[in-house]
Amino acid sequence: MKKQAILSHDAPAPIGPYSQATRVGNWIFISGQIPIDPATGEMIAGGVAAQTKQVLQNLQAVLTAVGLNLDSIVKTTIYMTDLTMFAEMNEVYAHYFHPPYPARATVQVSALPKGAQVEIEAIAYAGG
Description:
Blueprint: E1 3-6, E2 21-24, E3 27-33, E4 36-37, E5 42-43, H1 48-64, E6 73-80, H2 86-96, E7 103-108, E8 118-125
Helix pairs in contact: 1-2
């Protein structure tokens, strides 16, 4: 299958040698998004709730570029620098997804790019 890079100008530009997302057939593999405001290119102010909201908006922007939305996501991986903030992140996350919820893994890491507290990567399905 052919691999196609996806680029949304409404999501933060990649900060390294990677694509915002890659499409292979009906599958969309979205790179980890951190809480960067795409308009300014800067990290947003605020705690993990505000950061989670921005991350999910960035994921939505990438999906919009291919005519999809968050309901197309089948799997997420969430990286957090402090799992004691899990409930706060989870409360925001719950407002963006509907049953059937995506499969998910959440892991604590020692650091994330640009000092982010949360990063989320996703896999979406674009088939019927």
